[in-house]
Amino acid sequence: MAAGCAAAADAPLPHFTIKQLTGQGGRLAWYTGPAHELIAYDAIVDAETAATEVFVMQPDGSEARCITCKMDFPKGGGFVGQPAWHPDGKHLVIQVENANSNHTRFNHMSWGIDADLWLISLDGKRAERIWASAPGHAALHPHFSDDGRLLVFSERGTTPRVTRRLLHPWAAVGGQNPWDGWSIHIATADIAESGGRMLSNRRRIAPNGRGFYETHSISSQGRVVYSFTADGAPYVDDIFETDAAGRKTRHLIDSPATWDEHGAYSPNGRNLAFISSRADPEWRAPNSRVDTLTTELFVRSGDGRIHQLTSFNRESGGARRYLVSDFDWDRTGRRIAFQVAPVGRFGKADSPQIWLLEFSAPGR
Q1: Which domain holds residue 109?
Q2: Domain holding 341: CATH number?
Q3: Most-buried pick from 126, 210, 275, 347 (CB within 10 A)?
Q4: Residue 319 pLDDT more than 60?
């Protein structure tokens, strides 16, 4: 990836540079409070099983250390990750594969089926399960609000079987459609409590009706940013925002034929970063295949224009397929850390990487 990229000449975005932080990374969260500025992330620790653990590093990629490697709590088949910071900077909420899992791709952190939510401490001394998923259910993408009083995550329940074919990909989830049965779960959070008592006043909302929900953030006022796809279609459609009751919903990114995901506002609330397939005009939902998907990082600036920030797929010349996915802003809005997953010609994925995009000035 070129190290000296710039926004379009007529765009209200400053110039920016991009560099790789680590070749061994994954889903990430950048702490934006006053305590420090560590980036938490998951990374593969066992190539054979693809088991992962949670690490932290400095924003320049230095001083990487594992937080969960020596923590003694049940880790199922080994999928441990998807970290999100509590605003105190001392705790993280993570997804942990549980004993009901068959350790398939649907149990990976990117799906969260048969995953529980755990609160862990940065010093490695605390690990408590705060949410236990029933067999076949999912907990995905947890996030604390910026004041720590709320926790949001995507939850999936079991759905009717839609196939009995043993070789069908959905056989791993009992023949159910894994893209169906999702809702947004919001709870009051108090980390001074213990275990399951940390979450109270739990409620589920489905502001867009039946389908797939993936949560990306929640504000202290209860505004939730999320992705949604209707009726179990096998892709991630558009990005929305809603209130805690699910009644006041706003369409943030409206592009039904593209894959749009991971929406997150800059700290000043003016720019919305997200990942999308829109750089590839040949990939059109819902008919294109997931195994041909490519994504890049984009930002919608305050004037409503959308700007492409990365171009891994164009610069690879087809030698690799790249999926830009989870990312996070820093506290100033000048930097974005993001995950890049390279995929070879025959579908074999390389280790995910973490890259850093830095603007020359905060986004306007």
Answers
A1: 20-359
A2: 2.120.10.30
A3: 275
A4: yes
What are the residues whose beta carbons fall under 8 Å from the beta carbon of 66, sequence distance 6 or more? 45, 53, 54, 55
Summarize pLDDT for 208-265 with one digit per residue, the tens.
999 999 999 999 899 999 999 999 999 999 999 999 999 999 999 999 999 999 999 9
Number of domains the chain contains: 1
Pull the structure tokens for residue 84.
């999100």
The reply to whether 4 falls in a domain is no
Q: pTM for this one?
A: 0.94
Average pLDDT, whole number, for the chain? 93
Contacts 24+ apart (CB under 8 A), 239-247: 239/263, 239/272, 239/274, 240/207, 240/208, 242/184, 242/205, 242/207, 244/150, 244/186, 244/203, 244/205, 245/205, 246/184, 246/205, 246/206, 246/207, 247/207
Residue 9 lies inside a defined structural domain of this protein: no
Sequence length of the chain is: 364
Q: Which residue has the tokens 């490519």?
A: 294
Q: Which helix (H) or strand (E) holds 357?
A: strand 353-359
Give the DSSP letter of residue 68.
S
Evaluate whether residue 164 is within a structural domain: yes
Model confidence pLDDT, tens digit, residues 153-194: 999 999 999 999 998 989 999 999 999 999 999 999 999 999
Q: Per the domain annotation, does 30 fall within a domain?
A: yes
What are 275's two structure tokens? 């990942």
For 313, the enclosing helix (H) or strand (E) is helix 312-316
